[in-house]
């Protein structure tokens, strides 16, 4: 038959309709009433159009861009489009490794992930504090007798030709009461004296650059010399869209609210 008409079959075989063990329809099929599929339902084709007012999906996870061999390159640009006078999009972009929106976002509350800054020794009393901005934008670091001679910002989104900026905050806790050269208490090795930025584009890091931060004092940011004091140091890393392996494409601004200690009153 060229077309399967369920009503015709029911009229001929009774109101209960036919019971079929298997059915293969090679041409178009139209179902005029409700259709219930108790088994798996697979659609092989190039387009699926659902004209309905309610789409209710039981599964808590929805897959997009499914393929037998998924890659970040294939996932580039995948996401959700809401049609309007101007389409509203939420897509994942491989250039920056981030989800991107073409509309503003409004949140009632934001909870940030806090990571611990990793360190390694450059020698000469200088310790590199590495902050991976793909993992978090708020970090903690406990200072000891070593000076943080370099602050490194790893995986900074740097899509060539597109400006962006990232704010990173570090909570420094002074563990040492030694005032001479203890954990960034001297201007010579202060926060912002040496900064390193490793950009991220097209799913991978690019060659890093070295620079100095811009600070309000025009010198550097030094931390409290008192043990157990906490300093909040904020960095704003601005990428101007230029060559992402060139120092002139980045500016780092640094400021501090410091000397936080437990108050003498209260609980």
Structure overview:
The chain has 267 residues and is mainly β. Helices cover 4% and strands 36% of the residues. It has a domain at 114-260. It is built from two helices and 17 strands. The chain has a six-stranded mixed sheet with strand order 6-9-11-16-17-15, with no helix packed on it. Strands 7, 8, 10, 12, 13 and 14 form a six-stranded mixed sheet that branches. The longest helix has 8 residues, at 6-13. The N and C termini lie far apart (84 Å).
- Written as H for each helix and E for each strand, in order along the chain, the element string is EHEHEEEEEEEEEEEEEEE
Helix tally?
2
Tell me the Rg in angstroms: 29 Å
Inertia-based shape: elongated
Which class do the helix and strand fractions yield?
Answer: mainly beta
The strand order across the widest sheet is 6-9-11-16-17-15
Reported for the largest beta sheet, the result is: 6 strands, mixed
Helical percent range? under 10%
Uncertain regions spanning at least 5 consecutive residues: none
Strand percentage:
35-45%
The overall pLDDT average reads 86
First-residue to last-residue Cα separation: 84 Å
Query: How many strand units?
Result: 17
